């Protein structure tokens, strides 16, 4: 049976960084895919996920009750919602996906874009997965990796989405690499993208931090969201070798003290960070 989707079209003022904040919060609410436009975001969620017991929807706002941005005094957010049949996701993102370049060294592009003349040319077909490099958090994680020597580092990409960060890590010399995501679509997409880029040392896994029991890594990359990071930082710390590096993103500048405090409790110490439109990506080091 073809799933019925709900399409929410949001207008956000100011759009920057409102649209990015909205996407993050909608993702936590269960929305599966997003397309940015000139005025905001179009977001999709399966009807049975949003309203499992409803044949007819009387109030489309119910699913948005956990989206804090809707009540923010700093942003004006309005929306319309309709029911649609299965979306051609490839067609949707192909309309909007432009290749990006980070620090003149790494490019992230789709299969239909021309090859770029950079050191690290990554081909990604994101479909419904998160991580094309366009979002600030992915972009900054790429910047961190480009500045590091990860040769022969055993690496974890947690919340791997498309697998783009795991792919770059292998291109930079890291191995072996585990790429873990709780979402089945992301898991399958990471497998596909690793194969597309000729990667040999990436093992994609479907699940959460419970999969990390007994594992050790020299480098952990976790681009998720603040609440999940705070929950899982103790697990990451247990999995890191001494002097191992933890890269964290998926939260805002004002969250740095809270994240750093949790890290310090587990012998993880702040080294540096990048900031982009109020999003941050922080580097921590394990010191026993």
TrEMBL record:
Cellular compartments per GO CC: cytoplasm; ribosome
Catalysis performed (reactions): L-lysyl-[protein] + 3 S-adenosyl-L-methionine = N(6),N(6),N(6)-trimethyl-L-lysyl-[protein] + 3 S-adenosyl-L-homocysteine + 3 H(+)
Keywords for this protein: Cytoplasm, Methyltransferase, Ribonucleoprotein, Ribosomal protein, S-adenosyl-L-methionine, Transferase
Highest rank taxon of the organism: Bacteria
InterPro entries: Ribosomal_L11_MeTrfase_PrmA (IPR050078), Ribosomal_PrmA_MeTrfase (IPR004498), SAM-dependent_MTases_sf (IPR029063)
A GO biological process held by the record: methylation
Record-stated family: Belongs to the methyltransferase superfamily. PrmA family.
Pfam families associated with the record: PrmA (PF06325)
Gene3D superfamilies documented for this protein: Vaccinia Virus protein VP39 (3.40.50.150)
Binding-site residues for S-adenosyl-L-methionine, renumbered to this chain: 138, 159, 181, 223
HAMAP family: Methyltr_PrmA
GO molecular function, one term: protein methyltransferase activity
Function: Methylates ribosomal protein L11.
Enzyme Commission numbers on file: 2.1.1.-
Gene that produces this protein: prmA
Keyword Cytoplasm: yes
Record keyword Signal present: no
Protein name listed in UniProt: Ribosomal protein L11 methyltransferase
